[in-house]
Batch of 2 targets.
Target 1
Amino acid sequence: MNRVKLLFFATLRDRAGTKSMELEIPADLTVQGLKDKISDEYPNLKQSMSSVLITINREYAFDEAVIPQNAELAMFPPVSGG
Amino acid sequence: MNYPTIFSITEAEIDLNDLLAQITLRSTGAAAIFTGIVRGETKRGDAHDTEYLEYEAYVPMAEAKLKQVADEIRTRWPIVEGIAIVQRIGKLYPKTPTVLIACTAAHRDTGVFDAARYGIDRLKEIVPIWKKEVGSNGEFWVEGEYTPKAGE
């Protein structure tokens, strides 16, 4: 298993009801696998998963990317700075 | 030549004069400056009034991405001398500057306007910052439309 930190921002934080959580995930879990897991375990977040952006160690990640050990992950909607 | 590059996420008021001084060299003859401002009355599209905007950022990643935007500007417009990109976060009221991007160059006809334009457009695509709008339409998170590619 792999222990990771997951941060939420904006709508994702509101729906999750928390800024961050620690997760135990399988060692070979991909970004898509993480989205599926979050959809299953947190129904409030399911509707966000189609457009969510996911970062691994502060870089945007593909759905096929495998999540490394002790990663800092983040989930958030398309950005709206400016 | 080591050109000045400033990039930050801050809760403090944006000080244009100070930033401009920091990116002005003896060889500088032009500065293109864009600043975004909280609009209290929106007339275009769905007309509404805004009481305030509340900005938040994934600060360490946002600062790294601001640096990346500055690097991309330098790759595309090597004539640019100084670059300042600053995003203010927190609760911001109408008429308040929220973001500033300034590029300096020797002359105005060097692409320096395009460089500043690219900076604000790119910030809105890849820098992890969000704003919640509170006003006559209620309270909602503004969401962008761009999906960054892996490694972007």
Target 2
Amino acid sequence: MLLALLIAAQLPHVAVERRLAADLALRVGDTVVVAATAESAGMRAVVGAVFEPAPDPASVLKREYRLRLHLPDLAALLGAPDRVDRFGITLEPGASADSVARRLNAVAFGFRAFPSRAIAAESSQTFLVVSRFHRAIAVISIVASAVFLLCIMLLKVEERRADAAVMRFVGVRRRTIFGALVLEAALVALTGSVIGTVIAFGAGALTNAYYQRLFQTSLLFSFITPGIVLFSVALSLLLGLGAGALAAARLVRTRPMVLWGRG
Amino acid sequence: MGWGFRNLLRHPLRTALSLAGIAVAAAMLLDMVMLSGGIERSFARLLLSRGYQIRVTPAGTLPFDAEATLPNASRIRDRLRADPGVAAAGAILGANVHARRGDSLLTLFAYGIEPDAQGIYEVESGRDLHRGEADGLLLSGAAALALGARVGDTIRLTGRLDPQLAGSGADRTLVTRGIVRWLYDYRGQRSVGLALGTLQEMTGRAAGDRVSLFMVKARDGVDPAALAAALRRQFPGAAVNSIADLVAAFRVRMLYFRQLSYILGTVSLLVTVLLVATLLTITVNERLGEIVTLRAIGVSRLHVVAQLVAEGAALTILGAAGGVALGLATARYLDAILTSFPGLPAAFSFFVPRADAIALAGAVLICTGTLAGLYPAWRASRLPIAATLRAEAT
């Protein structure tokens, strides 16, 4: 027992991602064999920690397992002593990242320095593309919704032909009928928007719950901001009012006898 | 159906708006059907473009997914080629190399290839490398442009840079033999191809005879899946994937787009159902007198139902026809957005127009639109004749 403890104390320590630890039933203190390639013997190491990696949308779909080693241990494992992929540099307060990167690149050979901002911009390209795709889909959805709303409003107002005819027969002014129909359209649009917002929040919660479970991550997949709600409600109200006004204007211009079906 | 079309013409504005709504919904549905199957088909087509159905990579990796390499490439290749089910097998090594352009260094992606068994490029101009041609070089269009090189030009490539010594090692002077299209390159990728052995020497991988992957072509009549399973048993330390395996792995990564396509496709169908059902319900309400008169003179309930369902079908067919053209146009636009993903092969498509996708989207939409008219039609057929006639007369 003591011997085993002594041997374990001399072994390098590794930190294992929570997902990997769960899938391999690993716990802190367990001994594992880590190899760079399937055919190599690898090295024995002790699980020193189980960690939760920072949520990263770039890697969530790859579902790769992560393992952290001390730099010399990894270099030895890979057979590449004193070789690294990159350095992180913290600058003195007030120093410009761009000018330091420029200075380093001027004297560099075999490496290149980038300010963090440039790396962030480069690595966010994928998300910019997804964002553009979402915008395009949103535009198509808005067009479809607008046509749908216009159609429904037209049908809804057309349904009130007989009512409008009676109102005209008893002397109600066109403007009043128009106002009543537009008000009705606004109420329908507002009610629809409220129901739509509730459905969106429900669908968003379901989406997050499903994907968070699927990818075992705390990333948010659906994020409904007040700005999005405001934009959607305002747009549907605007479209509803516009469509209602268009249909109502058409209705009040029609002769009452035609509306009554005798014209 | 003719009766349905005629009825739709009675209210041109209403019909036009409904058709526009159905057309947009149909376009979205078509796009989503293309997206759901297109990703996988496009990927499979890309992988199979040179007829190699199996990839052998380091265990736990997919082709060019990691920097891991397989050792003893010659031995593995000989064993692969000795397999009676294998028609061809070639090794590929991927690595970065550098070339001088003026006073700066250009980083290029290099493929170490075996020209007699390669499945990753097509020659566009010049010629392919000969077997064992150690000083030949193939350039992608983007690499040729960046280097200002043409077929016949000599280019000096550096395999390794040493920041500590501020010097380069393993330089080789190579002669450009051809301009090629690398099948798995992203748009504008600066890639070069050279003999496998040359690249191994330049990048320090000759000692272990290391390569990134093998591409394997099955003999005619041999099932690639069965061959992959047999090779998996022969090479337990490597990942042996058939096209179906790679597509399945890719499907997981593209899960988001597939599920998005299902959700948006379902929403499109719902919009169609709502539009057709609302329109027909209001149509029925407007034509109560006409419908019960038909019933009064002996027209059967079934006939009334059929006429109204036909109207819904006519509306959906016309809308769907407009939706196909709109869907194909929007698919091109959406595809242009998604194919700008960094690192995605230029030959890849997300939206693949296929006759079966168009037929499927059309059939689903027409069935849905037709079924949406069933409830208002059934309601119309159940109207009490005398009471409705009396109510309509007053």
